[in-house]
Amino acid sequence: MAKFCRYCGSQITSEMKFCASCGTSLTASPAQQPVRQQPVAQPSSMHQYATQKSTMPSVPRKHKVPALIIFVSVLLILVSALSVSLSIVGNTAIAQIIDARMDTRSDSMPDSYSVIYEFFVGGERYTGSTTKRFQYGVRSDQTINVRYMPLSPRFNMPANNVNIIRPLVMVGIAILLLVSSKKGIITLRRKN
Fold this sequence. Notes:
This protein is α+β, with helices and mostly antiparallel strands and 192 residues long. The protein is 27% helix and 23% strand. The chain folds into 2 domains: 1-29; 67-182, no CATH class.
């Protein structure tokens, strides 16, 4: 029957006084032998290194919020802030439709149009675009109401698109993303 070293598991013979692998005395009783830690073998190849690395105990890492989730959350908050500010402090102007094309996306309504409009503030021309439904088509003299930021009319949208509920929902989603990623509920890392 084969014998094995009780410290390193290498096969030994009954004539041996010391283990050939770890050097532990095989003649002394276990109570007399000092407790020794197994030396860490130096890896001689990449395969051994990978095997040794996978068997090493893992050190817990501090959880960091992924940059992508932070970026998406900040973007949602900024878009929401712009929409809320348009509804609160935005001015209204009448915009002339300068181009309208039937929206051909598969999910669009049959009377949906991609519209480009223009309006003037203080003698300067500003433009915007939206997708809008026109039940009876678009006429060349058609106008729509738009809301714009007083300090920067480049930030504008059709007046009927401005509301408070949608931006608040977006802020709520952004906060939920941040909190759940911080607590580890949402992660974007690959599991090894």
